Amino acid sequence: MKLPSEDIQSALKTIIDRFRSEDKAVRERQLRMWKRLKFMWEGFQHVWWNEVAHDWRIYDLQNLDANSSTGDASYYDKQANIFKALLESIIAALSVNIPGIIGVPDDADNVLDMQTAKAARKIASLIAKHNDIKLLWLHSLYICMTEGLVCAYNYPKEDLSYGHYDEPKYEDTEVSVKNLICPNCKTNIASIPLSNEERDEYDPSDDDVVSHNLLLNKDENLCPQCLMQVDPEFQEDKMIVPRFVGYIRKPKARQCIESYGGLYIKVPNYATCQAEIPYLCFSKEIHYSFIIEEYAKDDSDLSEKIRNLKGAGFNDAYERWARLSPQYMGEYPLDTPTLNQWWLRPASYATLSDDSMAKKLRSKFPDGCKVVMVYDTILCVENESLDDHWTLTYNPLTSHIHHEPLGEGIVPMQEVLNEMINLILQTTEHGIPQTFADPGVLNFEAYSQLEATPGMVIPTKPLGSSKSLQDGFYEVKTATLSQEVMPFVQFIQDMAQMVSGALPSLWGGAQPNSSKTASQYSMARSQALQRLQNQWDMFRLWWKNIHGKVIPAFIECTLDDERFVEKDEQGNFINVFIRKAELQGKLGSIELEGAEQLPISWAQMKDVVMQLLSTNNPLVQQAMAAPENLALIKSAIGIEDFVVPGEDDREKQYEEILLLVNSAPIQNVQLNPQTGTPQPTQEPSVEVDPFDNHQVHAEICKEWLVSEPGRLCKIENQPGYMNVLLHWQKHNQIVQQAQMQSIQMQEAINQSKVSSPRPDTNPDETQPFIAPVRQNVIAQ
């Protein structure tokens, strides 16, 4: 990888050094807070700040003197990690479902734009598969809880493990060509055809007599350039011709998404939004072998330099300490230099005092630049836009881009709770009374050798005739737990829940002052989720902005059709294609699918389904009885062995659709009963079984025919689509025949009831009912 000139590298280092020292004191305070929250998440809560070492110290790890009176202080350092428990409840509530992504066309009347917009949904699904989107969402929420600002980094990555495509390969081949050259003007006679304009000239004059005479004479060699009759010369020339030699297998690219917090990302604290940051620094400790593989595997000198830097002194020791895993507990890993990646906006060039150098940087890196460094050694410089690869969360409830993490408000409650637990433990132990005895009454040496058994008798000596045995013993109770302790502990827990927003209804805890009915629990959960609506809205907007960059980047990098397998709503595996031809339009924007409300959990979905099943509304009952909703009902019930009527027919029909799509209708010839002439007919390749639930099969076929896969099959696989359509007609014909038979039977029953009155009925009373039936029969 070629680096820019030395003067450009020096100018970039000057800009970076200026930004590196910016907000240094503020960032150190932020790193201290974020590091403490990481300690508390991991369970290291009894920590204190050492001003000399500039580090958080853990009490349990202190080398205390065995003879010191504080040597057993850590024995009482017990804790209940409500910090992690409350934040995990919030993360679980916000990660039930991930917002869906849809594309909006730039022009709704443009067919290409509409196709590209529809493909955006499929692209989002493929990106979700490539990035384990559920884990990415959880990690982003964890960063939000412990660091506040969340930064998403998207970039393309090529690897053969992602698949490959074949690119045509051409080689330039030199060939010999013999040309006819005019000896007068040295023009290649074969390369210049005779002009028809000269031959068909309008209104020729006397000046054109000679040239037209030569043109009409086909036996003569005429130079088309100078129009002279010549004897051409042969000349052999060399020509470079591209020749196809095969294909090159190239790896496909994936769009990768990663999320980081303030420990890894440095942005100015004075900025109020992403547009106001002139720079972004992404720092990460990584083993030096990966750095060599990525940036210096073809440069032996640079590789050796990186190997020598791996053990060098740390320039940003405070930053490295903050990013270090709490599990190291004061130790430091070896062979992990800090890889710094700086993104500079074009406006940052103005910090240079040399205007000519700033102008030079703008011409070389007009969109901004990315600088990769190990300590002070530049490894790579590229023209790259910051906003195309980074997406920062925006919190509307704060004035600046950095904001306090949600876990910071729980820290005081966690500390008070730890103190109360230790106080209760010590009070309970010291509440056991101490007994003082007179050695003249009890033989301590003999008593210590005895094993206590029920009903045993221990010999004692009385103090005198006027004193009883109990006068030789005295009990002292050193501590008693106050009656106000336990209510105060409950108050602290309630305050922690109120501050964080993780109310008991989120995780199924008991509701205070509640009769514990289902309606009250549902209402309490809705109120608890309403508190988290702000965090949900912030993450939804952040998620939309990320895909607004990733999906266009995917379209730009796509050089061949993509295919992946996913499960549809009925639980069947289907192939999903992203055609290169579908990506020729223009996207207007990327939007979120569905409502803005928080997603419901499985328990809430179950409650809704059970309530719908218990209603008497005919429309609701019809919708719940639809074959497409059978899988939803079984999932909501939650019993795997529960049998839903029609489920087997539904699964069977989807299997038959797969067979029908991959085959063509059977062509037959039948005689027309009216004319007697042969008539071609088509039959589905999969027969209809007589024991099928034809109503369910017909509904499934109809639903597939009008769905997106069915519409796509109609365009790309017309025989397969027609095969499914014929199969639906067979089922529908049987359903209609059954309905007609049912109607005829009902009419026959009604006819028999009208024509044969009951014995206890007066015949005159049935007469008004007979006449209309006879009239209908006559009319038919």
Question: How would you characterize the overall build of this protein?
Answer:
The chain is α+β, with helices and mostly antiparallel strands. Among the domains are: 164-191 and 219-258, no CATH class; 645-759 and 767-780, no CATH class. Helix content is 42%, strand content 18%. It is built from 25 helices and 18 strands. Strands 6-7-8-9-10 form a 5-stranded antiparallel beta sheet. Strands 5-4-11 form a 3-stranded antiparallel beta sheet. The protein has a two-stranded antiparallel sheet with strand order 1-2. Strand 9 and strand 10 form a beta hairpin. Helix 4 crosses helix 17 (533-557) and helix 22 (694-705) packs across helix 24 (718-755). It is flat.
Structure, briefly:
It is built from 25 helices and 18 strands. By secondary structure, it is of the alpha+beta class. Helix 3 packs across helix 5, helix 3 runs parallel beside helix 14 (about 485-500) and helix 8 runs antiparallel to helix 9.
